[in-house]
């Protein structure tokens, strides 16, 4: 099993020790290509104060969020109460549409003599431009979603998943609830880590770059995001900047400890809390699941954007769960992508003719217990989970 990591300074050594198997050799045509393991991470907000975060939201100085309360009905935690925060209005009580701003920041990465630029024609994708492909995806534009056999509407994937996860209360309130993203694209930034930038794989259609996770996180929180906040492009605690890497992933400590395909983080900034997420838009096909299906394009962004919506500060508590997806052992946070990391993608064809890959995600009810309030009585949006997580022991 793979392992989930909460990346903080104190846990980084444990993360390095845990991530011991980088990948396996798998044939692709006549070439032997290294197919690497897929991991995701979260950098949680230090010392969160839910009351202060809700006050920032109410005052429009911080991210728009609502506070929820849940009582576990799961084996091993029945009756335990939990409080957390999610992006937008509450699907339990609201009929309204909320809109938050997501800002796409293309990241041009230089590793040695190789430049990874999401604005340039992509040799791994028939000369298409990754940034334009992402802009045409169901993470940005509305698409028709039928999840567990239920038509939840025509909207972006993050809205469709929220509607599917909270389907019963949304229908009870008239079915008009939506949580939209206003998506804008900002100027590209250039980023390099010098000798810490490495080429992980240099076979097949093109190279896969690697960056040190801790260095990237520190650079983005201490330099890159503050510079964007002062750039006049509207970046701040009320917005969600996402940093689009192209065929570039992250490693933990050294290149053999690979690969983190994306993470979402939160840190104190500008008198409030800034959230953000870097992720890889990958076209190398170097990430293959157990069914020998390449995990590509928006699979990884779908994981991170939806985890941000459901756990924007990385601190929403749940009963212990685990031994599933990328997680070995138990963890206790509301990360909707981790339990299903590596599952077959949900495929959505868009008007540009491209069929996009989106990761399946776990419903709210999977974490806190039955009965399911999601579509089809299921516990994930593509039907893999038919019951809630049971008790978890390491």
| Averaged pLDDT | 91
Q: Provide the domain count.
A: 1
Structural class: alpha/beta
How helical, in percent, are the residues?
Answer: 10-25%
- Rg is 20 Å
Distance between the termini: 12 Å
Number of DSSP helices?
A: 8
The major β-sheet equals: 12 strands, mixed
The low-confidence runs, each spanning 5 or more residues with pLDDT under 50, are 1-33
The proportion of residues in beta strands is 35-45%
Shape: globular
Number of strands: 24
How would you describe what is shown here?
- It is built from eight helices and 24 strands.
- The chain has helices spanning 12-18, 50-58, 130-135, 157-165, 167-172, 213-229, 299-310, 364-368, and strands at 5-6, 23-28, 31-36, 39-43, 65-71, 81-87, 97-111, 114-116, 121-122, 128-129, 143-147, 150-155, 178-185, 189-191, 198-201, 208-212, 239-246, 248-251, 258-269, 272-281, 317-324, 327-333, 346-349, 355-358.
- The radius of gyration is 20 Å and the shape is globular.
């Amino acid at each position: 099993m793979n392992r989930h990591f909460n990346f903080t300074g104190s846990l980084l050594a444990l993360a390095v020790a845990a991530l011991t198997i980088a990948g396996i050799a798998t044939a692709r045509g006549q070439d032997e290509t290294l197919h690497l393991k897929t991991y995701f991470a979260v950098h949680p907000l230090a010392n969160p104060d839910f009351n202060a975060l809700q006050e920032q939201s109410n005052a429009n100085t911080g991210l728009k969020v609502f506070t929820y309360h849940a009582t576990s009905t799961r084996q091993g935690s029945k009756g335990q109460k939990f409080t957390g925060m999610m992006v937008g209005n509450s699907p339990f009580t609201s009929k309204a549409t909320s809109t938050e701003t997501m800002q796409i920041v293309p990241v041009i990465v230089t590793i040695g003599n190789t430049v990874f630029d999401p604005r340039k024609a992509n040799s791994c994708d028939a000369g298409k431009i990754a940034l334009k492909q992402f802009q045409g995806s169901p993470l940005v534009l509305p698409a028709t979603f039928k999840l567990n056999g239920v038509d939840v509407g025509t909207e972006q994937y993050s809205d469709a998943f929220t509607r599917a996860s909270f389907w019963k209360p949304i229908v009870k309130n008239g079915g008009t609830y939506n949580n939209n993203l206003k998506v804008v694209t900002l100027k590209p930034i250039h980023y390099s880590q010098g000798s810490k930038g490495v080429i992980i794989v240099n076979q097949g259609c093109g190279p896969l770059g690697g960056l040190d996770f801790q260095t990237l996180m520190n650079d983005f929180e201490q330099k890159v995001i503050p510079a964007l906040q002062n750039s006049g492009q509207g970046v701040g605690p009320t917005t969600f900047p996402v940093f689009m890497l192209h065929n570039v992933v992250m490693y933990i400590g050294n290149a053999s400890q690979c690969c983190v395909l994306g993470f979402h983080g939160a840190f104190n900034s500008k008198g409030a809390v800034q959230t953000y997420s870097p992720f890889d838009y990958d076209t190398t096909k170097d990430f293959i699941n157990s069914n020998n299906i390449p995990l590509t394009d928006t699979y990884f962004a779908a994981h991170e954007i939806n985890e941000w919506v459901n756990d924007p500060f990385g601190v929403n508590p749940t009963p212990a769960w685990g031994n599933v997806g990328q997680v070995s052992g138990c963890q206790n946070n509301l990360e909707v992508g981790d339990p299903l990391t590596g599952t077959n993608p949900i495929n959505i064809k868009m008007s540009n003719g491209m069929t996009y890959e989106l990761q399946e995600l776990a419903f709210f009810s999977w974490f806190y217990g039955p009965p399911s309030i999601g579509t089809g009585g299921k516990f994930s949006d593509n039907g893999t989970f038919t019951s809630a997580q049971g008790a978890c022991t390491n």
